[in-house]
Amino acid sequence: MESTPLTTSVPPTALPDDLYCNFPATLASDDSAAPTITPSIFRELPEPDVHILASGGLRIPAHSGILASISPVLEHVIDRPRKKRNAEKVISILGVPSDAVVAFVRFLYSSRCTAEHLEKHGIHLLALSHVYMVPQLKAMSTKDLAQRLTIESVVDVLQLARLCNAPDLYLKCMKFVADHFKFVEKTEGWKFIQDHDPWLELDILRYIDETESRKQRNRRIRKERKLYLELHEAMECLEHICSEGCTIVGPYNVEPKKEREPCSHYSTCHGLQLLIKHFATCKKRTNGVGCGRCKRMWQLLKLHSSICDHSECCKVPLCRKFKQRSSPSDDANKRKDDAQWKMLVRKVVSAKAISSLSLTNKKLSDLEDDRVIAHRGIGSFRLQSVRRYRS
């Protein structure tokens, strides 16, 4: 890069002693010159052959070999031919605070960046790491910025994440805006987006709409799955009542025990017993008037027949009759009506399978925890305690 002699009068700016991996620094300043570093700092390093010019006229001596080995962009700038052979190599890094440039140079030498510098210059370090292609510093900056998002800063960080191609940080900011949109839309950053970046505003509003639609869809799916799981439990409870009997309802050849306590195996057992009792004594059904509760019981019996695999020996009433009605000899109209019914049957069966699978995974997890506890010696400790007590 072309040499740029400095004649501006800038007050001395002290550079940190650990800028070059904890090498001692001795600052030499002049009232008529920009702050520099004396060569004593490099007694264990080669002579610096390049200077980094930061905001405020701060000049940071550096080594082109180290800069080029870390950043391919800096390597390209260093290898660029100069107009004058004897001109000094100067790399200008302007537009960001000089302290951020110092932290950037420190990272190039040490591959370290303190939490204090990330908190103070995280946005500038992300921009510098993207422009000069330093992926390790970029990962550190994006991770730290994602943990420090606030209502006031999230819009600025979101814009920077898009410009710096940081998808993880961009998505984190989008989620933060969606969760706190009522407060974010009152900030100056949001007003700036509305006036100068309508495409980003559209992306944010679309993401919020898709997030809300996804939440509503998940709530609907969970609600349907809960309903199908309750239906499957009702089928098991129906078999339980018709085969074993429970409280007030039982098979014709088994006398129900009225003094028995309420069933603890199924939450729907008592309600289903009342429904069966109503179905057996309802006069509206027998008179052909129609009854909503009887219709519900009729549908439960039909659903059981569709799920049952042992209709020949099943003790649930009308199970075999419903199997015969659903035979292929039925007409086309009934086949069309049965399409939705078959879908209902599949969802009830799949809901039970998913519930059983999650329960199995939970049991396996508990078993693994028990193995870990035993491996740590707690089980043997208890045995030893018992033995001592018995002895």
UniProtKB/TrEMBL annotation:
Native organism taxonomy: Eukaryota, Viridiplantae, Streptophyta, Embryophyta, Tracheophyta
Tree of life domain: Eukaryota
Entry keywords, A to Z: Metal-binding, Ubl conjugation pathway, Zinc, Zinc-finger
SMART domains per UniProt: BTB (SM00225), ZnF_TAZ (SM00551)
Gene source species: Citrullus colocynthis (colocynth)
Protein name: BTB domain-containing protein
Annotated ranges, domain BTB: 48-117
One Pfam family of this chain: BTB
Annotated metabolic or biological route of this protein: Protein modification; protein ubiquitination
